[in-house]
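Work package 3, deliverable 3.1, input record:
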Amino acid sequence: MSSTKTVLVYGGSGALGKEIVKGFNGAGYRVMSVDLVANEEANLNVLVTLSQSWQEQSRKVNDDVTAGLSGDKLSAVICVAGGWAGGNAADESVVNNADLMWKQSVWTSLIAATIAAKHLGAGGIVVLTGAVPALGGTPGMIGYGMAKAAVHQLVLSLATKDSGLPDDSAAMAILPMTLDTPMNRKFMPAADTSTWTPLGKVSEYMVNWTENKERPVSGSLVQLVTVGGVTAVKMSDE
Amino acid sequence: MSSTKTVLVYGGSGALGKEIVKGFNGAGYRVMSVDLVANEEANLNVLVTLSQSWQEQSRKVNDDVTAGLSGDKLSAVICVAGGWAGGNAADESVVNNADLMWKQSVWTSLIAATIAAKHLGAGGIVVLTGAVPALGGTPGMIGYGMAKAAVHQLVLSLATKDSGLPDDSAAMAILPMTLDTPMNRKFMPAADTSTWTPLGKVSEYMVNWTENKERPVSGSLVQLVTVGGVTAVKMSDE
């Protein structure tokens, strides 16, 4: 058993994932990343491919993580894999886009949950990624809303007794409004970025919650609200 | 244009679907059924196969329904396709089962929504099928809960302006607790069936709501609550 604590970041090569990997590295953790491409700052990279089925991706990730841990436990399983696509019910691409959203957000979140069920240590945490708009209807982005609503409900399931997670673990989701990513800067050049949540702030929350500092209660859908460049958390029932 | 009113039942050969087809037949409607096998009581059967992708199933259903309607409009699109599978996050079959639940409940519901967007007439209605337990966590049936939560959120999207449905249409879901089906009788022989909802009662609601009798407001998640053999509706926020 290693004395270094280990965390897993699903989507560790995306803009947010990279920042989270960096945050855990800085805090002295060993970091495993799961993504389509390697993150050189991670200590172990598990690579998946777009051609895999859900079952194949799950098997690959479970096998590689089990081998990489060699019996060690994870302090946190954080899934920030995801994407965005629009379309209403009249849109020719609505089924294609719903399919893509399901794969990017729900496949990854459920596989992360299976990893947590097997490898999370005492007091560990699972954090998935939801979305504020999916708390209501999302008529112009139907597939995205369904996928994120499924992730929200998965958190409720994982936080309930007999979910398969260790009894003393916690499960929650972060619900960003808009993240301050290079892609969002590129595609929304005229937007007011003072309400966008900085990636470093999300990374800071992840490390703190893992270390049980200001960790929200299990089952929380934690909205990240940024106003005037200052980010705070808001529980979805407040 | 035909003077007979037409409805579409997705899942028209299942236990509940058959009862709904019968109910609309009795009320003088022309009924289209979409399912894996034909329902001889339907006026038109659109057959799908388990080997189709989501996109292929959508194309097949959209093509056949468009041809079958020859310009007529639908009074209602009702999706009662679905299934059930259990499993928590530690279960080896959880990904398989989540995949199945997604295909059975969400593929069908979204394809039904695309049909509604194209063919629903003025004042028409879309009814999808959710589940009471998925309003909260479902730790022992994780894939089922995610799929039904996605259907609930789809209803919220469809009921919102610019969803792609005709402006004056309504979208809602029925949320059964336990339906009184032959399968449930077989697998739960010792259960108290006085709280199970009779299929004929659901069929009656479908015909009434289509004819704008006691139709719940658009966006409703309508719980079907049966006590002592008597069924009533309860809105999910009551």
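Residues 46 and 64 of chain B are 6 Å apart (CA to CA).
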